[in-house]
Specification:
This protein is an alpha/beta fold. The protein has twelve helices and twelve strands. The strands form three sheets. Strands 1-2-3-8-9-10-11-12 form an eight-stranded parallel barrel, surrounded by four helices. It has a two-stranded antiparallel sheet with strand order 4-7. It has a two-stranded antiparallel ribbon with strand order 5-6. It is globular.
Length: 331
């Protein structure tokens, strides 16, 4: 059913964030977007995050969701902005600083208060918006390192259905080497995805990646990462996603579906239709999280026995998420 959504150009993927590990929020995101009809939920590849997402999906099924989305985890074949965390020593922060970092953080990961000062690691997903704003430039990043072999059992136990590899230009050898590390489980997966930004000679690079895909996947998605982690900034952020999607479609690659990401928001699908860009689907990350943020912030909220209790905050979050999902489902 989920793969058929790719063929019919009605594929909706939720991106929780490759570095986002706030488990109550992950559980609630999975719950909300399963009820809203998502085809795939992408997350960090650690067992605790996968378990939290699975709990949310199971709760959604108990509440009447018609089907379970694919569970996807993301890896990188080298340094990548999606796999970083902001870090700084709060003792070095001037007492008279206006703290623009705290104001700009989309997940309130940067906190100054009586009980904690600094970055709450589980809430940071590496968007980098705080980096250029620090007046004294003390904010740095550290790379999140995941070991693919750690999730092999999750795949074999059918708790993970798909894997995405984030790559950057000129990493043909690194990509092929990482693919080989995954080779024992690739035949067990329903789907593989490759996420990448724009670059010169992009078609040649993507063709070179195909050569390293041994064994070949059952299904493949090319995720065009137009403007990473920016969908919640404004409608204009989706422009780069549309441009890169059209560019890759024009390549007529011999393998795989094309899916937009990076800057996607409420205006993406309407603009896709206006421009007549026939991608197979759209992935939503920061924007999808933002529109249900009220529910995510209340991580202790109780899940009702029936979704029809319209006064509950969950119902409101699902209704908002359904509006986003329905844009692509009505294509």
């Amino acid at each position: 059913m989920e793969i058929e959504a790719l063929r019919s150009r009605q594929w909706f993927k939720l991106i929780c964030g490759a570095s986002y590990q706030h488990l109550p929020a992950i559980r609630h995101l999975a719950l909300i977007y399963t009820l809203a009809g998502a085809d795939c939920i992408d997350m960090a590849p650690d067992p605790a995050t996968i378990a939290a997402a699975r709990e949310g999906i199971a709760a959604a099924m108990d509440l009447g969701a018609t089907r379970s989305p694919l569970v996807m985890v993301s890896f990188n074949d080298g340094e990548d902005p999606h796999f970083r965390k902001a870090v700084f020593d709060p003792e070095l922060c001037p007492t008279n600083c206006s703290r623009p970092c705290e104001k700009v953080c989309p997940t309130t990961a940067i906190k100054f208060g009586n009980d904690y000062n600094g970055v709450i690691s589980d809430l940071c997903y590496g968007c980098g918006r705080c980096l250029p704003l620090c007046p004294v430039q003390i904010i740095q990043t550290r790379e999140q390192v995941y070991v693919p072999e750690d999730i092999f059992d999750e795949v074999l136990n059918q708790k993970v259905d798909a894997i995405e590899i984030h790559t950057q230009p000129n990493r043909t050898q690194e990509f092929a080497a990482f693919w080989q590390r995954l080779s024992p489980i690739i035949p067990k997966l329903q789907l593989m995805a490759v996420s990448f930004p724009d670059c010169e000679n992009l078609r040649d690079y993507l063709i070179s990646l195909i050569a390293g895909m041994q064994p070949q996947p059952r299904s493949l998605i090319w995720q065009t990462d137009g403007r990473p982690m920016s969908g919640d900034i404004g409608d204009g952020a989706t422009r780069a996603a549309l441009q890169l999607g059209r560019k890759v479609l024009d390549f007529q690659l011999p393998l795989g579906f094309v899916q937009l990401a990076g800057g996607t928001n409420a205006s993406t699908v309407p603009k896709l239709r206006q421009a007549d860009i026939p991608v197979a689907g759209v992935a939503y990350g920061s924007y999808a999280r933002k529109i249900v943020m009220d529910f995510l912030e209340d991580s202790g909220v109780e899940i009702p026995d029936r979704l029809e209790e319209k006064s509950c905050l969950l119902w409101q979050a699902v209704a908002i998420a359904k509006q986003l999902v329905s844009q692509i489902k009505q294509n």
